[in-house]
Design brief:
The chain is mostly helical. Helices cover about 75% and strands about 0% of the residues. The chain contains 23 helices and no strands. Helix 6 runs antiparallel to helix 8 (about 135-145) and helix 16 (about 285-305) packs antiparallel against helix 17 (about 310-330).
Amino acid sequence: MAARTKLAIWLWGSEPKDRSLLAKLDFTLLPYFSLIWFLFGVTRASYSSAYISGMKEALDFQGKDYNYMSTAYLVTYAVCQMPGTSLLTLVRPKYVFVSANVTWSALTMVTFRMTKAWHVILLNAIEGAFSAIAYVGALFILGSWYKRSELGTRNAVFCVFGHLGSMAGGWIQAGLLQSLGGKSGLPAWKWIFIIVSVMTLPVALFVAWYLNAEEKEHAATRIIVPSKQSWDLTVFKRVLWSWQFYLLPFIFMLYSLCVQSLSNNVMALWMASRGYTTVQQNNYPTAIYATGIVGTVVYAVISDKIRSRWEVSIAIGLTFVIGSAILVADPPTAGYFFAFYLLGTTYAPQAVWYTWLADVTSHDVQLRAIATGFMNSFDFAFVTWWPLIFYPVTDAPNYRKGYIASLVTGALTLPFIGLIAYLEKRDTARGVIVRLPGSSYTSGPSEGHQSQERSKVGDERNAGITVRSAEVNV
């Protein structure tokens, strides 16, 4: 019993009410989003596996049909992210998430009944719209319930499940192909869609994230409530005049361009040129996700402990530079492996920078909703065409042009990280960005503003708005 209590204190702190609240969130809210994100990765992997396992011939895919399928998905996925996160401030998120997650997983199931390539292209376009909030929506909700000293670690857990889904997707598909091909008269590629949907639908339907009245009251004392504002034209004025809307999505875009050296089969094609076997070409690159998991967790935990994000962000930016510079230098074989695996640790911004965005928009829920959706959409606006120029398969295995582009984009993150850190400190001192006592950058002006906000908390609690996530009451 004593050991269990010590573990609970280590995980959730010494204050009993905090432990109870965090334990409930960690056993309901966090697992739901994490498992969905894991299965999302497995689902997307099913399309590439099915394509090379008989779907291409069965549905008569021609020319660039497969590319059209991927593009149709990415376009609707990117376009619907901002509206999706905004919707979470207007409709109870549990209803939004269940409806969206059930729909995209059901569409995956329906794919096995399709008879033409354009049918699958159309389904992917619809699926992209409904799956748009699987990532940004989850990060938005997590940012509504956890404190500054807790959020980075939870975002890291969520992102780690995505990496695990990417790693396991190929293995799961391979197992399905071997065990179910031809069963009940169905080809293996159809079984892939059926089984993946059967795995996903029960999780999509499971929603048990709720708080009782006492836990909501306690949550109101832990997290600042943003002033309640309606959706009108002033929202867009506030958003478009804010630095948060531009700077964090910009550095996230630079990060995504930098790590294109880890995508596009770059490592596998380089290994092929060095005589590695096909099995090795498939297995060795998965270690990038392993270093990504380590980097994501370590950086997020450190940023939570010090209650600040810019220090670890600088470390990530320097890693961009070092890893890309090694690739540009065309090192011996061991140097390439070291650079690829080192750059894998820089997947950490998926957790750290979305947490940073939640920190600097804690005063305005609508700004946070729109900026969270825009952060990924802006990223997609570039990564859809960037590899065609800097990492075309025709350059394999010599991607020097791409490595130089990664070095430049990685280096560019550093001055902008410094600028964001400066603006965060300035606006916190002015009381624009509100911090609870004990958070970093707390100063006289913000403390006065905090006391006003804590007063608002009590008033709004009586009106049924009890925590920062009251605007997105689950």
